[in-house]
Amino acid sequence: VHPNVSQGCQGGCATCSDYNGCLSCKPRLFFVLERIGMKQIGVCLSSCPSGYYGTRYPDINKCAKCKADCDTCFTRNFCTKCKSGFYLYSGKCLEKCPDGLEASNHTMECTSMVHCETSEWSPWSPCMKKGKTCGFKRGNEVRVREIVQHPSTRGNPCPATSESRKCIVQRKRCQKEGKGKKNREEKRKKSNKDESKETRQESKGRAARRQNREQRENNNKTQPKKRKAPNKEQDLAPVDTAH
């Protein structure tokens, strides 16, 4: 063993040097060189730091640097996160996304465009003017639709969600508020009043007829019976005197 190489190292080193740090690592640990000023020091880590990717070999496990535009990577040619100003697409870091894709500043990735989608139009509303459906000849009617999918940044924007058009209606007067209900109430009261009047009149008529009938019966009971007039023809008949 070289005089500057020690086997009683700490921090996961299998062998180390006072000047260069770790020279080899214990099993399953990754060896990586860290720069401190103009000097490089070997360290042994359980996983590679950001900006590095790990490669396992039979004799040593090493951490290698990602490409300059990668923040993290799986291999040198496959980035998993890009540095600021670049957008991730299929493992690569691009300054501009391909056609048909758009850059997401939130995830720093190239994503598919999402276009606006709307529902079907609703039926046309009743013809109105100033919130009323009467008292005019020309008015407006409207229809609406809802947004069911909002677009992404570069997707097709949403169209208008309402439409209005002129309309013509048969002119008619507006009833005063509560007038129709008042008229129906008055008619109902009048009908009830007429029915009550007819009922009272019928009751009075029945009472009068009953009273007249009772009066006649009482009169018949109090008046004396008339005697029958004698039969003059019988009184004037000749008397048979022959014996």
From TrEMBL:
Subcellular location: Secreted
Domain R-spondin Fu-CRD: 11-110
Entry keywords, A to Z: Disulfide bond, Glycoprotein, Heparin-binding, Repeat, Secreted, Sensory transduction, Signal, Wnt signaling pathway
Residue stretches of biased makeup (Basic and acidic residues): 175-219
GO BP field: positive regulation of non-canonical Wnt signaling pathway; Wnt signaling pathway
InterPro entries for the chain: Furin_repeat (IPR006212), Growth_fac_rcpt_cys_sf (IPR009030), R-spondin (IPR051514), Rspo_Fu-CRD_dom (IPR043601), TSP1_rpt (IPR000884), TSP1_rpt_sf (IPR036383), TSP1_spondin_dom (IPR044004)
Family: Belongs to the R-spondin family.
Protein name as annotated: R-spondin-3
Organism of this sequence: Rhagologus leucostigma
Gene: Rspo3
